[in-house]
Amino acid sequence: MTIYLDAMGGDNAPVQIIEGAVAAVSEYGINVTLIGDEAVINNVFENRSLSRTGIDIINVTEKIEMTEEPVAAVRKKKDSPMVKGALLVKGSHEDAFISAGSTGAVLAAATLYCGRIRGVSRPALATLVNIKKPVVVLDNGANADCRPEYLVQFARMGSAYIRSAVGVENPRVGLLNIGTEDIKGNALMKEAHALLKEDSTVNFIGNVEASAVFDSEADVIVCDGFSGNILVKAVEGTAKLSFGIVKDVLMGGALNKLAALIIKKDLYAKKALLDPKAYGGAPLLGTNATVIKAHGNSDATAIKNAVRQADTLVRNGMLSALEEAIKQQEENK
Amino acid sequence: MTIYLDAMGGDNAPVQIIEGAVAAVSEYGINVTLIGDEAVINNVFENRSLSRTGIDIINVTEKIEMTEEPVAAVRKKKDSPMVKGALLVKGSHEDAFISAGSTGAVLAAATLYCGRIRGVSRPALATLVNIKKPVVVLDNGANADCRPEYLVQFARMGSAYIRSAVGVENPRVGLLNIGTEDIKGNALMKEAHALLKEDSTVNFIGNVEASAVFDSEADVIVCDGFSGNILVKAVEGTAKLSFGIVKDVLMGGALNKLAALIIKKDLYAKKALLDPKAYGGAPLLGTNATVIKAHGNSDATAIKNAVRQADTLVRNGMLSALEEAIKQQEENK
User: Fold this and answer.
1) Residue range of the domain that includes B152
2) How many domains does the structure of chain A reveal?
3) From the centroid of its chain, how far is CA A177?
4) Three-state SS for A315?
5) Chain B neighbours among A 137-166 (CB < 8 Å)?
6) One domain for residues B109 and B126
7) Mean pLDDT, each 10-residue run in order, chain B (333 residues)
8) Are residues B96 and B230 in the same domain?
9) Residues B113 and B88 in one domain
10) pLDDT value of position B276
11) Which residues from chain A sit within 8 angstroms of residue B258, using beta carbons?
12) Which CATH number fits the domain that encloses residue A40?
């Protein structure tokens, strides 16, 4: 198995990416191959006296910037980490590629250079959150406009993913909606609801409201990429805001600061539950490879977690599980 | 001015509704007219020894249940609080109606019996949150499917509302989207973005991501009713979850409980910022009346806040401001 890591992508590249790779080697014994400008990478290793054990480097001369139009950029810059990474993992059940760079460029590179699993209409970004139990939300932004059939595929792919990622058997699928009753929702969700209800290979449990996502029985929350992104970002923003409010209270006067000293450690440990970076990144499900989009502002810990996640997904055969899930659907037609 | 209040609607009706009305009279000196089953209402006053000062009652014999199909229910049950309330405030610039009952039924009653302001395509539910500063999100669930033009009207109505509600001059309008760049979003948001950019009477500042709603410059966040509902409910659910986590930490052992004693009061005061009930209810903007949908699980405090909100909106001439905003738009065409 090889885990390829884009050393140049993300707000904190290359330093935090490289430190994350080194941490993955030392903490989990997972070897990592960095893709990027070798001189820049070597410089980071030297300046920070990092160990090169378990790390390989593939040199590339180009880099895709956040401001570039994704499809044009990945077509043009063939010697960039994203294109190189996508080509290296194409069709492989043994390797994975991780990038914290531009989401659009990662999607474009994976779709263009890895291709899609046979039968998949649209690959989807799957975000795992684990507050009370693991829940995967998909699509989280790969497809802003969806047709109802896409959502059924997301349900199947999300189910295969959560089985591989955390071992949930017979995952329960909920549809993100604005009411729990079957007839609720916009036109897309009403149609998707009807299709999911009929699909014998999805364990569909009905609509789930945004306020109940983490309290519901659902293991997989299916939605279009627009709504999914609104949901995940609202959760992220509100958690930050809430803990910011708690922090303000804890800094408000000498007695409160004493309280802060007492609970600080416990609070930080719990707060991490609401940090999406704790779970690694969002795999792009449906391309013919294991590709993970790490959060743009990933630090070394987030990258280390993404490497571990990639390792788990390859070991547990996620790509084969996805192929199987889509094949079953084809046969079911 | 008369504030009419549906005494029978909501999870905690009639007791909390009536107690909320009594609190509005005693705390703010705002008189309230309750609409409901007079015998039931009188019973609550007697059993709880509440003061009848400043409270009138209008007796009705019917009631719309949460499980009823909204449009059919408001067509049939003419002697229900919702229909009676809608008819009483129709066309009035001096009165308001508040209900914590079924959202669908409130929308249906207001649209059917109050009619729309001339030129309004779709009335919208506007939710005000005031974490760092007041922000109004609309539509929050009245229109699950929207056309881009609707969102431009929401922008104008939301601007008129926040001016009346909290006195924001020249409100800045943001479009809820999955990226800040102009070209981001689904088909609806891309088109709405282009229309808003061209509209000279809206102070449009561009796209706002769900994670940045309360940190952005925007006073008004415009979206379709599906996305708005996902946003507001995700904020609500995550705030509850976050403070639940903090509460767990504060209950974890004797020392932590000491910390809890110290910060409890400050924490509760701050936590209220994230409670949507603190701001009253969501007015339905665009009908020919002032109609407020209070949260389904409103307690007496939430109802009291909604009464105060209704009083403010009537005093500040919200309905005239909405008429003016839509008229300007017509003239602008």
Assistant:
1) 121-279
2) 2
3) 22
4) helix
5) 141, 144-145
6) no
7) 97 97 97 97 97 97 91 97 98 97 94 95 93 92 96 96 92 96 92 96 96 93 97 91 84 82 81 72 96 94 95 96 86 64
8) no
9) yes
10) 65
11) 259, 262
12) 3.40.718.10
My answer on whether B67 and B139 are in the same domain is no
Question: Which positions in chain A touch B274 (Cβ < 8 Å)?
Answer: 238, 241-242, 245
Domain assignment of residue B201, yes or no: yes
Residues 222-241 of A with CB under 8 A from B: 224-227, 229-241
What are the pLDDT digits (tens) for A2-15? 999 999 999 999 99
User: B274 touching A, CB under 8 A?
Assistant: yes
Number of H helices, E strands in chain B: 11, 11
How much is the pTM? 0.92
DSSP per-residue letters across A191-227? HHHHHHHH-TTSEEEEEE-GGGTTTSS-SEEE--HHH
* Chain A CB contacts of B230 below 8 Å: 176, 178, 210, 227, 230-231, 234
From the list B144, B176, B236, the residue facing A178 with the nearest CB is B144
Set of chain B residues whose Cβ sits within 8 Å of the Cβ of A230: 176, 178, 210, 227, 230-231, 234
Say yes or no: B68 and B80 in one domain.
yes
pLDDT at A333: 59
Chain B contact probe: residue of A226, A247, A274 with most B CBs at under 10 A: A226
Any B CB within 8 A of A191 CB: no
Give pLDDT tens digits for A97-135: 999 999 999 999 999 999 999 999 999 999 998 888 899
B212 falls within a domain: yes
Percent of the residues in chain A that have a pLDDT greater than 90, as a whole number: 76
Query: Are residues B158 and B273 both part of a single domain?
Result: yes
Compare CB distances from B273 to A186, A245, A267 and report the shortest one's residue. A245
Do B181 and B247 sit in the same domain of this protein?
Answer: yes
Q: Do B229 and A248 touch (CB under 8 A)?
A: no
Work out the burial of residue A272: count CB atoms within 10 Å of its CB; fewer than 13 is exposed, 13-18 middle, 19 or more buried: exposed
Are B241 and A131 in contact (CB < 8 Å)? yes
A218 touches chain B (CB under 8 A): no
The answer to whether the Cβ–Cβ distance between A225 and B178 falls below 8 Å is: yes
Chain B residue with Cα closest to A265: B249
Which tokens is A280 given? 């690694």
User: Could you give the CA distance from residue B222 to residue B313 in angstroms, rounded to a whole number?
Assistant: 20
In a domain, B324, yes or no: no
Quick check: B251 contacting A, CB < 8 Å?
A: no
Last residue of a domain, one of A235, A261, A278: A278
A9 close to A102: Cβ distance less than 8 angstroms = yes
Specify the DSSP class assigned to residue A287.
B
Strand order in the sheet with B55-59: B55-59, B32-36, B2-6, B95-99, B291-293, B282-285, B124-130, B134-138, B220-222, B172-176, B203-208
The predicted structure's pLDDT at residue B244: 85
State phi, psi for A2 to the nearest 5 degrees.
-125, 130
Q: Which of A146, A216, A262 to mutate to test the interface with B (most CBs of B within 10 A)?
A: A262
Are B245 and A176 within 8 A, CB to CB?
Answer: no
Preceding peptide of B70 cis, ω within 30°: no
